[in-house]
Amino acid sequence: MAKILKIYPENPQENLIAEVVKTLNNGGLIIYPSDTVYALGCNIFDIRAMEKLAQIKKIKLEKAQFSIICNDLSHLSEFTRPIDTSTFRYLKNNVPGPFTFILEANKSLPLAYKGNKTVGIRVPDHSIPQMIVAKLGHPIASTSIKDDDEVIEYSTDPELIAEKYDHLVDIVIDSGYGDNVASTIVDLTGSEPEIIRQGKGEI
């Protein structure tokens, strides 16, 4: 049964963030707020947690394209191939924000991402995921709970989210109503940035 933690984005309670981090370190799954929709997250280095995440999304882990949630760009070199100055400047100008950037992956990706040629990097403009990643010490794997076919009420209301995912996750962070517009996805693997999906935010 999922535990609901009410955490306020203006001043996240450190003891509650510590509880979330402990859950992630123990292989648990969380639902957390972002600057777009509520999202599912887990420890990027825990293969079993990653498999659970894939099961919830009804896909095989090797076919999953889970984003990597960072609190800044300092983790880029851990997961991506070296990028040129103009690409880095482009990223720096647009993070934090409601964008997922597709970059070329390197060979140091966590086990669950092995074989992926590209990876989606995201730095949400929201204090709670930023604080979770900072306290955890490394990024988390993430996928939105938004239904791609329709906008449904449960995806914005933390109480309804908790009802739907009650036996699937360990913690639901209630930070008030979320948005129902997903992030804008920008492919940076070519010579020019290419918008793959227009979501929230203007790049």
Textual characterization of the structure:
With 203 residues, the protein is α/β, with parallel strands linked by helices. The chain has one domain: Alpha-Beta Complex (DHBP synthase), CATH 3.90.870.10. It is built from 6 helices and 10 strands. The protein has a 10-stranded mixed β-sheet, with helices on both faces. Strand 2 and strand 3 form a beta hairpin. The radius of gyration is 16 Å and the shape is globular. 42% of the residues are buried. The model has no long low-confidence stretch (mean pLDDT 93).
What distance lies between the first and last C-alpha atoms, to the nearest angstrom? 39 Å
Order of helices and strands: EHEEHEHHEEHEHEEE
- Secondary structural class: alpha/beta
Specify the helix fraction band. Answer: 25-40%
Counted beta strands: 10
For the largest beta-sheet, the strand count, sense and barrel status come to: 10 strands, mixed
| Overall pLDDT level | 93
Task: Name the overall outline.
Answer: globular
Strand order of the largest sheet: 1-8-2-3-7-4-6-5-9-10
CATH superfamily: DHBP synthase
Domain YrdC-like: 14-201
InterPro entries: DHBP_synth_RibB-like_a/b_dom, Sua5-like_dom, SUA5_domain
Organism: Kaistella daneshvariae
GO molecular function: double-stranded RNA binding
